Amino acid sequence: MKPASVFRFVASFVSASVLGACAGSNANLPESGKLTDAFSSQSSTVSTVPTPRLVAEYKVPSGNSPQVIVNGPDGNLWFTESNSQYIGRITVSGTATGTIKEFFVPAFPSGITAAPDGNLWFTDPQGRAILRMTPNGAWTRYPLPSKYVCNPLTRRCGTLEYSPTAIAWNPVDGRLWFREWLYNTGFADFGNDVGQITTSGVIHEDPPISGYPCPNVPTPFGMAMGPNGILWMTDVLKPPGYQVCTSEVYGLNSFTNNFYVPIAGATTAGDIAEGPDSKMWVTESDSNSIANFAVGAPVMLFRIPTPSAGPTGIVTGSDNNLWFTENTANKIGRITTAGAITEFPITSLSAPYGITSGPDGNLWFTENAGNKIGKFIP
Question: How far is CA 91 from CA 10, 14, 103, 118, 378, in A?
Answer without folding.
Answer: 24, 30, 14, 17, 19
